[in-house]
Amino acid sequence: QEVEPMLFGLPLKYVSLVTLAVQNAALSIVMHYSRVSTPPSRSYSPAAAVLLNEILKGSISFVIALLRVYSVPEVYNSRNPFAGVWRLYREIFSADCWKLSIPAVLYVVQNSLQFVAISNLPVASFQVSYQMKILTTAAFSVVLLGRKLTSTKWVALCFLALGVGIVQIQTTASTTPRNVQVGSAHDSAPIYNHIMSPLKGFGAVTAACFTSGLAGVYFEMVLKNSKADLWVRNVQLSLFSLIPALLPILYAPIPLDSRGFFLDIFRHFGWWAWATVGIQVFGGLVTAIVIKYSDNILKGFATSLSIILSFLASVVLFHFRITPSFVLGSSTVLAATWMYNQPAGKEPTIITNVISS
Ligand code: C5P
Questions:
Q1: What is the pLDDT of residue 1?
Q2: How far is the CA of 323 from the centre of ligand 1 (A)?
Q3: How, if at all, do strands 6-7 and 179-180 pair?
Q4: What pTM value is reported for the model?
Q5: What is the pLDDT of residues 179-224, one digit of tens each?
């Protein structure tokens, strides 16, 4: 039987889930701020951020994979100092490496859509809507992994969709496209010079939920059906991501005051942009660990915890207004997520009674 991996004396599975919840909340806040705190003419390129994310994540995974290869006694004791590099090269360019091209493209699309969504929605509404990932993940788990869902889980999914719907309707009604000047009356509050378009934001978040569900389930399928190392899989994923991530950069119009290719790409790339990329890289690595040692469904549960965190932070940082329908919608989403994650046979009796009656 496999030994459960531990970190700081706690099961890695739970440490990574809690870390992912905090990372998710931090990402949506920092990413939102990085997009709306500067006028559009001085904002950084999301395509550059997506590319940088893949380069950094791939490089970190490569170093971890290399350290692991060199810790194998056969390689460690070898007289050839390049034995590990050669072995890793063969593992990365293995016959089945092409399998990672599918989630790679999906994740690049998802990461780009996330920028569109977060630039056009309040943080809390984005987080709640992004919970629809649970629905798409469940649907793809049923279709691709042949998982069976209990009737409680299906009911939970319906409630999830209902809750997201309530939040979306109230956000669209209260955030009409306009130049939002929130918080200008407060010294510490950010000044938004940004035009938000909630419909565009919801369109992007819905599409991102589809790519998230499909990519996550596909990655789980590849990881669990082969013996290849997680970090090698991550390197393969990043390598395949480079092509779709580079395309929008290569086809971007050259600015009139061009200062050269690299300087153009990273134009206006300030501290907040770097922080966004840093949190994204960290999240990508933690997500991979969660998918490997836990599963996609528990991942959904972790991210729903992050709703509460980002909701509280939005109230403090962005003076987000709490409306009764927002509270109703997000409570429905949280309750649905909790219901969905009840272990089989331990569903709350009130729910099983309702279903069976
Ligand atoms: O929202 P979701 O949990 O689907 O997001 C997954 C995120 O994790 C994506 O941004 C994706 O790029 C990243 N990821 C990764 N490496 C993996 C799996 C996911 O970077 N092996």
A1: 54
A2: 32
A3: unpaired
A4: 0.84
A5: 343 333 333 334 455 677 889 999 999 999 999 999 999 988 888 8
Mutate to test the pocket of ligand 1, among 107, 131, 235 (most ligand atoms within 8 A of CB): 107
Ligand 1 pocket (Cβ < 6 Å) reads 57, 107, 110-111, 133, 212, 216, 219, 234, 237, 283-284, 287-288, 299
Amino acid at 333: V
295-304 pLDDT, tens digit each:
776 777 677 7
Q: What is the DSSP annotation of 15-44? A: HHHHHHHHHHHHHHHHHHHHHHSS-GGGPP
Q: Which residue in the block uniquely carries the two structure tokens 């956000």?
A: 171
- In this structure, what are the phi and psi dihedrals at residue 187, rounded to the nearest 5 degrees? -60, -45
- What's the CA gap between 291 and 281, in Å, rounded? 16
Classified as helix, coil or strand, 180 is: strand
Using pLDDT thresholds of 50, 70 and 90, give the confidence band for residue 253. Answer: confident
Between these two residues, 40 and 237, which has the higher pLDDT value? 237
- Looking at residue 165, its amino acid is G
Q: Which tokens in the block code for residue 276?
A: 């966004």
Question: Ligand 1 centre and the CA of 26: distance in Å?
Answer: 15
> d(Cα 173, Cα 167) in Å, to the nearest integer?
10
d(CA 21, CA 149): 24
Give 310-341 pLDDT, tens digit per residue. Answer: 777 888 887 777 788 888 888 888 888 788 87
CA of 110 to the centre of ligand 1 (A): 9
Strand 10-11 and strand 194-195: the pairing is unpaired
- Average pLDDT, integer, range 339-347: 70
Among the atoms of ligand 1, which is closest to the Cα of residue 215? 4
**What pLDDT is stored for residue 345 in this prediction?**
63
Q: Is residue 138 within 8 Å of 297, Cβ to Cβ?
A: yes
Task: Report the alpha-carbon distance of residue 162 to residue 166 in Å, rounded.
Answer: 6
Atom 15 in ligand 1: which residue has the minimum CA distance?
A: 284
State which of 100, 220, 277, 287 you would mutate to test the pocket of ligand 1, scoring each by most atoms of that ligand within 8 A of its C-beta.
Answer: 287
* 106 Cα–ligand 1 center, Å: 10
Tell me how far apart the alpha carbons of residues 91 and 86 are, in angstroms, rounded to a whole number: 9
